[in-house]
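Q: Hi! First time doing this. I have a protein sequence and I read that you can turn it into a structure. Is that right? Here it is:
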Amino acid sequence: MRADTPGQARVFWVGVVLVAWLLATSGARSLMAPDEGRYVGVALAMLHSGDWLVPRLDGLPFFHKPPLFYWIGAAAMGVAGPVEWAARLPSVLGASAAGIALFAFLRRWTDDRLALWSTVVLATMPYFFLGAQFANLDMLVAGCISATVLLAAWAVLAHHEAQPWRGALAGAHACAAAGLLAKGLIGLLLPFLVLLAWCAWTRRLGTLWRLCRWLPGWVLLLALAAPWFVAMQRAYPDFFDYFVITQHFRRFASSGFNNEQPFWFYLPVLAALTLPWSIGLLLPRHKNAAPDIGTTTRDIDRLMGVWLIVIVVFFSLPRSKLVGYVLPVLAPLAFLVARRILASGPMREGRGLKVAAAAAMALCLAGVGTLVAMPPPGARLHLPAGQRIGPGDQVLMLDSYVYEIPFYWQLRAPVMVLGDWKQQPERDDWRKELADAARFDKARASRLLVDASQLPAILCAPRTTWLVGPNNSQLAHPWLAGTKLVAVNDRLAVWRHDGATRRGSHCAGIPDAAPNADAQP
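A: Yes, that's right. Below is the predicted 3D structure, encoded as structure tokens:
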């Protein structure tokens, strides 16, 4: 490992520039539903409740994923307030970790120019740039996986060359622990599969085996990651079955989840979302290109190639595929692109690279600008001036759960959700998430997840009720005609019902006028 101060300073400043680049536009747009609203809402609930152990969706234990995203997001919003850039900071930090680790690794094991341009390519890929500014767990775990692979590979190479390796290996175990806390077992499994395949190809399985037997690393990993999982299992006996068996193995093997796609889905996704850099892979190698730096560089080529293939194949096997799943391959893809460009003809000169980088940056900023100019339907439903949720008011969502409402309305208490909760949801949507969460706190769920028979007690209580639902909710709930419409947009509407003034016959008739509808938002 290089100990020269100028080299360490270079890594530091690359990190500063990378964070600034990703953070600059991270607050430019509203949260997107459902993913951003869901995960940011859980983080904000953690901050408001003061319970930093149990993630909660609408007040109910939410064990789809571990808590690292929520911890970082809640801490950031606790300092900066509930603003979009703070809500997206976990993704920014995950992306930054991937970029910094890539630069430091390549600077140590190749040369400064390849390290710098690989990092520039990574930072200006629209796929990477926009993923870093999307508040869900994919970029955070991608950063953890990338850092784990690079630090573990660093340790393998250093051990093979009889150089100091323990610091890098300890860092790999710490990053793997962060990956476990970010999204579960893939934070450990995917780096291991990549390293296993790479070491088998480069005939370093013996080295990998010796490093895997380094007990201080496993002690560090367990000390960082295990306490939360143990605490949840002790508090909720069904936690292991739900979090490990259902959310990992059944979800991976099942076809019942959303967004089924063909096996080759990620190939066009990667090619399109990494433009213009993906074109660089097609450039021919220049006849006067500098030769490889040595055996180590060829082994790094193999590492990056194996890394890309293993993760793309892994996520191509399940029928359910989401764009964010393959974000961990962007670091090796950036290296392969930079390596090809630097070995090509005119593009390997400084001017051609700078033009390509400027075009890539323009595409990144254009992507953000497009999202700002063309927000998704129903984004950010505002209450009119002078209307606000009072401390004694209650919020009831009709046949839907609008994830972003708690963030933008600054709700500190869970809302009630009207629906048909006797039916077991089949689709992987808000109903299933809330129904799954209800199994861990049935008493609280009975007060929050309500049906039509409970409407009289809710609406006729002596306090104001704010009703949120699809803007066509009056078709399913004719009694809304007796409430005040206060806000509406292209997807949602808000009504105000002052219960203290609605006692008597009107309230008594609510169940008859409110069938157990199943309207979609």
